[in-house]
């Protein structure tokens, strides 16, 4: 674990499990309870790291790995299927202390893409590796590999069949973006962000969204905030959402909530929807979303521990 320097003594973490069309009317009580429990497990995994004096970087990786292993979310196990029936995973991590960053896309055998993203950051001279090359690196670095069946779940397979049968566009398949992410600030006032996703149901042609793109779906800078996004990736890329929020905070002097809402409005003008979570070096976390719901959770050193789904 990285040592912290006790700048504020306050720590906080926020997680998301994707923004989407969830409402109390469309989700039954059993599904609500299952998602809330899963969010709680991931939140506690990150919280335990911070409570023990660990770094924001370790905390976001622990929380995201828990969400990747949980089949309820579109990352790792339970990722959506591509048009050709495979699971192709993207992830990124960024350390606000150094602005070190690592990312991978299109991986098919790495159990926890967030761990591979971190290994790219720490053990390679690069920031972003893709596909077969990323997994060659994963094997060299002993990052856990699994049979692709590990990721496949029946509900996601049915979503693909439904999308094909109805000839839906990628954004119409229930408007559920189950991407996962975490942001945290540790007791030393350092922030970190991590995001992991299977992308969009039925994606083709090697499509990559915003999640693994540093500055779009993921960014962390101790001078501003840590940001993780979920939503319509194409618009999030075009608005460089995560970096834009940090730039508004750092250069424009805006508060994190105002900056987040302003940038989500810009995404909306481009025709995109989604959600953002943030953590600031001062010890704050928050979120905003323009979909009916977003799977989310927040915890901090003052005793906050809350999970939520609906708007
Ligand atoms: N933003 C992700 C992507 O475009 C999707 C999501 O948030 O679920 O790949």
Describe what you observe in this structure.
The chain contains eight helices and twelve strands. The protein is globular and about 50 Å long. 33% of the residues lie in helices and 24% in strands. The strands form two sheets. The protein has an eight-stranded mixed β-sheet with strand order 4-3-2-6-5-1-11-12. Strands 7-8-9-10 form a four-stranded antiparallel β-sheet, covered by helices on one side. Helix 1 (29-51) runs antiparallel to helix 2 (56-69). With 311 residues, the chain is an alpha+beta fold. It has helices spanning 29-51, 56-69, 113-123, 131-140, 154-166, 233-238, 241-252, 256-269, and strands at 12-20, 89-95, 100-107, 128-130, 180-185, 191-197, 218-220, 226-231, 274-279, 285-289, 293-300, 305-310. The chain has one domain (5-301): Glutamine Phosphoribosylpyrophosphate, subunit 1, domain 1 (4-Layer Sandwich). Aspartic acid (ASP) is lined by residues 18, 74, 177-179, 197, 199-200, 209-211, 217, 230-231, 233. Aspartic acid binds at residues 18, 74, 177-179, 197, 199-200, 209-211, 217, 230-231, 233.
Q: What fraction of the residues are assigned to beta strands by DSSP?
A: 15-25%
Subunit organisation of the chains? single chain
CATH homolog superfamily:
(Glycosyl)asparaginase
**Which bin fits the share of residues in helices?**
25-40%
Total helices: the number is 8
Q: Strand order of the main beta sheet, please? A: 4-3-2-6-5-1-11-12
- What ions, cofactors and ligands are bound? aspartic acid
H/E element order: EHHEEHEHHEEEEHHHEEEE
Helix and strand composition category:
alpha+beta
* Distance between the ends: 36 Å
Mean pLDDT, rounded to whole units? 94
Q: In the CATH hierarchy, what is the class? A: Alpha Beta
| Main sheet specs | 8 strands, mixed
* Unreliable stretches: 1-6
| Number of structural units classed as domains | 1
Net shape = globular
Number of strands: 12
In CATH terms, what is the fold-level topology? Glutamine Phosphoribosylpyrophosphate, subunit 1, domain 1
- The CATH architecture would be 4-Layer Sandwich
What Rg do the Cα atoms give? 17 Å
């Amino acid at each position: 674990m990285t040592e912290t320097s006790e700048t504020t003594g306050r720590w906080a973490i926020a997680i998301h499990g994707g923004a989407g069309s969830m409402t109390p009317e469309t989700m039954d009580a059993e599904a609500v309870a299952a998602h809330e429990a899963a969010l709680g497990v991931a939140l506690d995994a990150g919280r335990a790291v911070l409570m023990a004096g660990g770094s924001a970087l370790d905390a976001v990786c622990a929380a995201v790995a828990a969400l990747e292993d949980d089949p309820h979310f579109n990352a790792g196990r339970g990722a959506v299927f591509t048009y050709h029936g495979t699971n192709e995973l993207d992830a990124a991590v960024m350390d606000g202390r150094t602005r070190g960053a690592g990312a991978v896309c299109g991986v098919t055998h790495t159990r926890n893409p967030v761990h591979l993203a971190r290994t790219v950051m720490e053990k390679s001279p690069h920031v972003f590796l893709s596909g077969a090359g990323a997994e060659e690196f994963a094997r060299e670095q002993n990052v856990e590999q699994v049979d692709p069946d590990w990721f496949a779940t029946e509900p996601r397979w049915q979503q693909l069949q439904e999308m094909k049968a109805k000839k839906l566009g990628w954004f119409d398949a229930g408007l559920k973006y189950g991407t996962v992410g975490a942001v945290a600030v540790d007791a030393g006032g350092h922030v970190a962000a991590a995001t992991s996703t299977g992308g969009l149901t039925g994606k083709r042609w090697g499509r990559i969204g915003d999640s693994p793109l540093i500055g779009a779906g993921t960014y962390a800078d101790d001078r501003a905030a840590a940001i993780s996004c979920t939503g319509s990736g194409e618009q999030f890329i075009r608005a460089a959402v995560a970096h834009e929020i940090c730039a508004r905070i750092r250069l424009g002097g805006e508060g994190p909530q105002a900056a987040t809402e302003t940038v989500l409005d810009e995404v909306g003008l481009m025709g995109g929807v989604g959600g953002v979570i943030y953590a600031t070096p001062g010890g704050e976390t928050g979120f905003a979303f323009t979909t009916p719901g977003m799977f989310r959770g927040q915890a901090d050193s003052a005793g906050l521990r809350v999970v939520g789904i609906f708007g």
